[in-house]
Amino acid sequence: MTESLDRYIEVNGRLVDAELKKLLAKKAEEPETIRKAMSYSIFAGGKRLRPILVIAAAECCGARAKDVLKTACALEMIHTYSLIHDDLPAMDDDDLRRGKPTSHKVFGEAMAILAGDGLLTLAFEAAAANAASRKLDGKGAAALVSAIARGAGTQGMVGGQVADLEAENWKGRNHGFKPGPHLEYIHLHKTAALIVASLEAGAILAGGSAKERAALAAYGRAIGLAFQIADDVLDVVGDKKKLGKRGSDADNNKLTYVSLYGVGAAREKARALVAEAHRRLKPFGAKAAPLRALADYVITRDK
Questions:
Q1: CATH number of the domain residue 148 falls in
Q2: CA 214, CA 199: separation in Å to the nearest integer?
Q3: With a threshold of 0.90, does the pTM exceed it?
């Protein structure tokens, strides 16, 4: 990571964390256990990639980080809820996340499910508050909620997770199963869709034009797919201690770019996608410098 990008993530990450602490502060009408479970996973050491994308997209369209903080936090809460549920025994059955025991290992399965549910619903409360603070009209507020819901739901992340589950033990499937298109669907929806939603949300809150939103969405699809391909590669060649997990996609017979195409071809595909992402940012000029650096970071990271 370049020094300038590292600084950008550090500064904005602190803003996001401070806002998350406010949003997750103890409330009298809530059971204390659920708040502890939600906070445990939110503050478990994530990269804050999606909140940073919300902020960077907003800046491309003329707004400031402080203008979009609640929605930045909303995207992080949705991402975290997905990780809590993804780690459950019924899903990937992981006992470590970012080097720490997963939510269900600490709080039990039922509370982990509820913690995910709580984060998902709180996310929309935060986004709605942000729409009000930015004085979006009804159409703008609806566009914001729609973009986030589409990225998180069955047309996005949830749909991708379903396709991922359906692709388990994919080797030896009958001739009707097409692993290449199925794999791209998984990655574009399971990972890229929420990244696209982050960028669209930032642009909507900043009053970005339809053309600006389209360019940022195209950038998001490219880096989202590249990010997941890089994850596939790291799962094979990365340091498990740095990755903070024990298992592997190969152990679970997952359909990945590496299992289908090999490490070399996967890396080449990721590099091509990052080049595409850079092309999509040309209209924004210098304002898109953080997004350009983030695109490069996607394929150079080691965790």
A1: 1.10.600.10
A2: 10
A3: yes
